[in-house]
Amino acid sequence: MSQTSANDFKSTNPHALAVILEASETRSIIAASDIFDIRGNLLWARNQPVSADLQRRLMDRALKSPIETSLMAEDGVQAATLAQGVATLSAPDSRLSALLAPQSAVLQRAASDIRLHPVAQLLLSAVETARPAMFAHAIEAMAVAGALVAARGSASDGEIAIAMTAGLLHDIGEMYVAPEFGEADAAKSLDVETYRQLVVHPHVGHLLLKQLTDYPAEVAQAVAEHHERLDGSGYPHRLRDDQVSPLGRLLAVTEEALAALRAPGATLHHASVALRVVPREFDVHLAGPLATAAHALPPMAARRGIDDLRHRLQRLDNALRAAPERIKAALPTPCSDVLRHTADLVLALVERLREGWNESGLWSIETIDSENLAEAEAVQDALRARLLEIGRVARLSASAASADDRECVERICEILIEGLVKPV
Fold first, then answer.
1. Least confident segment among 2-6, 50-54, 378-382
2. What is the Cα–Cα distance from 79 to 87, expressed in whole angstroms?
């Protein structure tokens, strides 16, 4: 579903259907109404349980109504499921406990008030069964978004519930992308096709909520924006500053915090570093409660020895220093507008990383000792990840460029990576 239009939900997405069918093996998913193709032929009768035969009947058929509105999960996710998820994540043994526990009662009450539209309930129920890791991420995002809003102290239960609804549904578009292009896997690869597929999911989620549900427009908009960053380095539209809605900013902070927590041994300290390591990426006011919660935890523990970390930091420092001149030298003369725009974007993002490096106070390798070792490691990991992300942004920016320009962009991406794996 790389090119999604208003009519795409009339044709059944094979990836979403596969998740629903897998879930139907253990859940009661039935037709909520008769399912007809666009010509009026009956394909599946009302109340008939979903089975693998449905996939064959839907093959290459345009439908009178989207399949998402024609099915229902009889034993699906309920508000009580969401409230229990909050309770579990607030427990002392949870990595999110310091953030969630102080607001647990409020969050559980708000979770109980979340309205599950039948389409959302169907898709969440299918994901809970067939893609449990994706469902767990949705519950975490729901709880974190709610906690960041609740921590203000002035938000109403309704405002908290809206934030939690947006967090719960933020990745619903991932169901419509081939599983090998899922967010967790794509984060490990610079492959441009993987990244191109990945960047579609916020748009698909936005369209799905806008066209097939009656959730508030601000929720659908925030889902579209949850990977945007205030400095214009996000996706899919590289929005900047006030172009990102307040709820979209909240989801961006939530998503980045949870991404940082995917690393082995990561704590809220690492999430806090990831949110502030590069200036002007995220709304620091929204991220404040997370930083406060991190300060209440025991200090971070470094995973690497001081010599190893100093060596890695030196490579990162060299890469950031050398990249601008090497990138400029790689550009042909004359240079196309597309290539110039891509190069300027890369240079601006590299400079932003350099700012983060300087503002961390760790710019001098010699100043790193046992006391700030863990902080330096977290900063290094976050900046390294950002440097790799710039390659994805560059490839996407030049995806419609000429073959020669794309070859030059590949060279630029190689320059970014080379500094991390060998001396410049």
1. 2-6
2. 13
Closest among 62, 65, 64, 35 to 48, alpha carbons compared: 35
pLDDT tens, residue by residue, 393-409: 888 778 778 888 888 98
Contact 416, 388 (CB under 8 A): yes
Give first-to-last CA distance, the chain, whole Å. 40
How large is the C-alpha radius of gyration of the chain? 23
pLDDT digits 0-9 by tens, 91-105: 999 999 999 999 999
Nearest CA-CA partner of 127 in 141, 115, 139, 117: 139
CA dihedral for 194, 267, 134, 286, sign (positive or negative): negative
Distance (Å, whole) CA 77 – CA 389: 35
Contact 419, 315 (CB under 8 A): yes
Phi, psi of 25 (to 5 degrees): -70, -25
CA 117 to chain CA mean position, Å: 22
Q: 3-state DSSP call for residue 415?
A: helix
Instruction: Take residue 307 and report the two structure tokens written for it.
Output: 């010599």
Mapped onto helix, strand or coil, the DSSP state of residue 403 is helix
> Whole-model pTM?
0.88
Question: What is the Cβ-side half-sphere exposure of residue 44, based on CA atoms within 13 angstroms?
Answer: 26
pLDDT score for 365: 66
Of residues 48, 24, 19, 51, the one with CA closest to residue 34? 48
